[in-house]
Automatic annotation (TrEMBL), chain B:
Lineage: Bacteria, Pseudomonadati, Pseudomonadota, Alphaproteobacteria, Hyphomicrobiales
Bilayer topology: Multi-pass membrane protein
Subcellular location: Cell membrane
Protein name as annotated: ABC transporter permease
Family indicated by similarity: Belongs to the binding-protein-dependent transport system permease family.
Amino acid sequence: MNVIHRLTLTTALAAAIASASTVGHAAPKEGGTLVIGSTSTPRHFNGAIQSGIATAVPSTQIFASPLRYDDQWNPHPYLAKSWEVSKDGLTVTLHLVENAKFHDETPVTSEDVKFSIETIKKNHPFKTMLQPVTSVETPDAHTVVIHFDHPHPAFLLAMSPALMPILPEHVYGQGDIKTNPANLKPVGSGPFEFDTYKQGEYIKLKKFDDFFIKGKPHLDNIVIQIIGDENNLMLSTERGDIDMVPFLSAVRDIERLKKDDNLVVTDAGYDAIGPINWLAFNTRKQPLDKVEVRQAIAYAVDRDFIVKKLLGGFAPEATGPIVPESPFYSGDVDKFAVDIDKANQMLDDAGLKKGSDGSRFSLTVDYIPGDPEQQRNIAEYLRSQLRRVGITVNVRSAPDFPTWAQRISSYDFDMTMDNVYNWGDPIIGVDRTYISSNIRPNVIWSNTQQYSNPKVDELLEKAATETDPEKRAELYKEFQKIVVGDVPIYFLNETPMYTVYKKGLKNAPTSIWGAASPLDDVYWDDGSN
Amino acid sequence: MRHAYPIAIRLVQSLALLVCVVVLNFLLIQLAPGDTVSVIVGEMGGASPETIAALKAEYGLDQSIPAQLGIYLGKVLTGDLGYSHYFNRPVLGLILERLPATILLVVTSLILAFVVGTALGIFSARRPKGILSHFVTVFSLAGFSAPVFWTGLMMLIVFASLIPLFPVSGMADVARPGQGLGYVLDVLHHLVLPAVTLGMIYVASYSRLSRTSMLDVLSADYIRTARAKGLPERRVVYKHALRNALLPVVTMVGMEFGQLFAGAVLVETVFNWPGLGRLAYESILRRDYPTLLAILLFSAMLVMVANILTDLAYRLIDPRIRGRGR
């Protein structure tokens, strides 16, 4: 096997590097409880079969994974002390640490890794993540060889804690994994073990004394308190009942908590989550099937106003389908700087003249309920803004998420506000929105724009098997230019993602997965709380 | 056993009503677009059509609505409340975990409202033109008109944020849970604001009702007789008048029991109280129909039980009804 990438760091060294990225020099203090506030109730804690933040935050504490990532997209050893990718890209070999144990004291072996990869491939909602895996071999207890039917550059990222929890086969291997009782009483090999779960109230995790990275974790307990009502969560945070709120995206709340002297409010981390807020078009519906009409709308919308005024400057601008924090981002795209005259001219040229009432045609715009700042308010803004180019916009509200999802995925819409995540690698979170083979009715967050461009399909398929990162970036660069120009979607902003925590807390999560990664470095400055 | 026959009739009527409630709830819920699979997929950040189809088949959501109704009715009649697809757990367990919190909240507010409401009503009835009486009238009007979630938020801002006397959220301190008596006190401390908020509307209506009914009774002939006999005023009011004046209030308590549950949905959401109300609200958003239906069924049953108990209480308080029951 030709080795092109080999890392032989010991786990101890790796851990030191991982913590060195943010720590000062003082030795971490041991003990204390961290109370994390969350608005969502997880279905369960098994991240191998359930994606999403509500599950990922506890799951990444309970389960370890082969690799972990810092805040610069660099992989670090975790359960795998080293790994090799073959030159043809068809094989990845993992060398596991030998001292890792599950919380029930059984050792972590290559069989567990094989079982987990197969389980995730079969059950995880992100099908493209492990689709190319053909077989997994276990030559010995601490070596895993994974074979692919074509090179799969997203695989290293897919071994992140948020995406590849390693499950003990002897616990999860029996019966239907979806109904396995251990999903609610999880057993993993991560820094914290499961203690109690009061449904809809809190999840309590406690320090795992035999965690395979010596000296970690520092905290004694992590409690994730579920507070469904956002006002209540904010009050609790201001009072100091909650120590940390990750994944905070409401601008009003961020502004409010920034004024609090006892709290740190930061947008560090979360680069791999990559949420983009955008305006999507139904490209098969007249007159939006004409590219000039969509481009005219893009010229009419003032992205700068949305980002600076409506979102208070807390949300970075999004210029294309890949977030700026991604290594595959390209800014070489049409920015559609606001130009009302040009928009009017383009619509005139397209034969859509203004009627006697000043209106050319009317469109509806939908939005996802529950996030007024990024969704409803922008939809309302579009109504007044597009009137300036003679388009009458009717804002259509939906009482809840399923109602909206039903409309959009059955193509019963003209335009809609939407919010979609990159999930680290374009293969996982980007391709699905643009590739024409993913135009699938009744599947939300598929290619619901029904956008189809053979050139885009070709570029994405090539990029999905290109192992050279630079060549891959070139392909994505061209893809971004075409998609932005075709305007199946007009990209508005990145969803702000902030972490709020008390001042005494050290090493708050800043990795590319934010708080959906192990909190084994976190400690309290005064040793307790 | 003279109570037995009318009660048996009530029970049969109640059972028939329950079946209607189940069928109606089931059909109403089908009117909402989307299902639990679309919510699950939404929270997962998207899924393939294969996953979606597999989930729908697994949960029986690919079958026709009459077929789903048939299956559901069959299960409910055999005492199986179904299975929450969202949580992959039997619904009964979910509900039983949440029930104590709701009962604690609802019963506390009910007792609070009943005691405070009637006391205020009686005091103001004794001096209907006094300052206290006017105060009670204004207070009742305000308490009755204010939406319960607004009252809740105001309570939070005033008594948990500006003057941090009470906790904001939940039923107990989750980070540092107390033991034994400490835990009980912690729960009571957490209970104050939600119970007062929920009790508020009912204090208003009970005080108005008991005031009116007390005024009514106090002008009755037998009260004049009692006073003429030279009985002390305290005895006239609390022994002779109160018993009769309470009748309409008891009716009201029974009738409003169901509404109290509805109020609990809002109060539990605002105060993050881990009860059935919040579970119901969240189940709607999750399209977790089995859980929602079971909660509706449960509250329908509780309302019926409350009504039967009211009937019984009536028979005990009012001898005239006892006679008619035969």
